[in-house]
Amino acid sequence: MAWQSDTRTDENSHLLRLKVIGAYSLAKKDIFGASDPYVRVELQKADGDVTIETFLTKTKKKTLNPVWNQEFVFRVKPAEHKLLIQVFDENRLTRDDFLGMVEVPLAGVAAESAA
C-alpha cells in the first residue's frame, strides 16, 4: 500500500493504491469444509465510522487460501482517513460470515516517490 501526492485538486489529497493479494488458512465456514471468501475495503473518516467509499474483491469459491491480486485506488487525505479491511465468507441463503478485519490509519503510511 502506498500513496502518491496529487496537488492538482488539494495539497493534502493523495492517491492511495491498495493491492489485495490474498489470504491463507481462513476459517472453514461452509458445510463441506471450505469458504467462499471476498474482501470488503472501506475508506472511512479517521475520527469515526463514516464510510466514504467501498470496494469489493471478487469472491473466490471453495478455498481457504484465496488469491485475489486486485488493485483499488482511493483519493485520500492521510491525516483524515483510515481503511477498514474485512474478509467475509459469501453465503447464498444466509448472511455472509465474518472471517476477520484490520483497521489501518493512513497517517502512518509512507509516501511513494512520483519520479
TrEMBL record:
UniProt KW keywords: Calcium, Metal-binding
- Span of domain C2: 1-115
Q: Please provide one cellular component term from the Gene Ontology annotations of this protein.
A: synaptic vesicle membrane
Gene Ontology MF, one: calcium ion binding
Q: Which Gene3D superfamilies match?
A: C2 domain
> Sorted alphabetically, which PROSITE patterns does this protein's record hold?
C2
| Listed Pfam families | C2
What does the record list as GO biological process? Answer: regulation of neurotransmitter secretion
Q: What is this protein called?
A: C2 domain-containing protein
The organism's lineage?
Answer: Eukaryota, Metazoa, Ecdysozoa, Arthropoda, Hexapoda
